[in-house]
Fold this sequence. Notes:
Layout: E1 3-10, H1 21-36, E2 45-49, E3 76-80, H2 86-99, E4 105-113, H3 119-126, H4 132-135, H5 141-157, H6 161-176, H7 189-193, E5 201-203, E6 206-207, E7 216-225, H8 226-229, E8 236-237, H9 259-272, H10 289-298, H11 325-361, H12 382-390, H13 396-408
Parallel strand pairs: 2-3, 2-4
Antiparallel strand pairs: 1-7, 1-8, 4-7, 5-6
Helix pairs in contact: 6-10, 11-12
Amino acid sequence: MTGCIVGWAHTPFGRLDGETVESLVVKAANSALADAGIEAKDVDEIVLGHFNAGFSAQDFTASLVLQASPDLRFKRALRVENACATGSAAVHLGLRSLAAKSARIVLVVGVEQMTTTPGPEIGKNLLKASYVREEADIEGGFAGIFGKIAGLYFQRWGDQSDALAMIAAKNHKNGVGNPYAQLRKDLGYEFCRNASDKNPFVAGPLKRTDCSLVSDGAAAVVLADVETALQLKKAVVFRATAHVQDFLPMSKRDILKFEGCTLAWQRALKDAGLALDDLSLVETHDCFTAAELIATVRAAGYDASVPEPDAPAPGSATPKTRVSARGRLRTYFLTGIIVAGPLAITAYITWWFIALIDSWVKPLVPASYLPDHYLPFSLPGIGLVIAFLAGFSERLVPDILSEIANRAVPRPVSPAPNQVP
């Protein structure tokens, strides 16, 4: 990839009274630029991710980012909407501008304000992310859609209530350590697992703790090409990205397979030269726990114990999300070069230096002082050791000097016995 994250920021999330879409955008944008140490005048492009769908009366919100600074005036700006993937789609677009070299620095902002909208309208707005012609009348709104998916998943794979409760408990526990999280309370597995007055069923097998909250908030990142990022104080490089779009109508796809997610996982892992086992952390979209279960555990391939109905039997084929042997070999080979290369160069220089000193010193040392005279092989490094010790040995120095003098001054040749002097 050719892009890096060089700055980031986000507001708290929750019911933010007194805030507007504009104020949230301005706060996130300015904070991200300050975090990156970049001035607004140096930004080449702005991308705003904003679903809206009626939550805000103000549309054409891409231009609101310019409210963050007069220096952003006349910068090219556009808005991206891609349902639940709106934010990540905006980042993808920014990275493409960097890759095309049409921009060096891109400011990407994501924003939503939902809590000012009455409850019934919230459900109606969210349903606009579904195929309205066929799915607008599903009971329970968008939660009803995922409740239907979860119910069908239970029918095919068995009751997954324990798994959903584990996901919900994990997510709530993670929120405790995040000062910007909307709900910072560790509810625990038992509370998430069992239905109660405080945790009732919402749609199908989904309880309240299985559903994301209505929220306000904004986040922003500053993207830069690698050359620019190397001049800044910090940078996180993208190793790989993947963007997949599937059919909108649920009637045109198997809603339990999440085939788009599977393909995105495959492409990203392949481009990165990694396998699932190489990952130490997965952060995934969790609008509903059922979505996280299917998108991560099944679509990614973390649970290969139960194959899809039309998938090969276990052991008959390599899992789709596994990287090829060549991809693994390439990753390990490059890693080996990075680690072993400097060591090999250091070892070679050291060996060369020792051999050079030996070639200078050994010829000057009487053979009786060299271990090589008594051993069946040459001992490397003796010349280097002697060079260090020579200055501290009163007996060795005169002998070396004498040997040097003997070799430097020609000796007279004795006449032959029958030669007259």
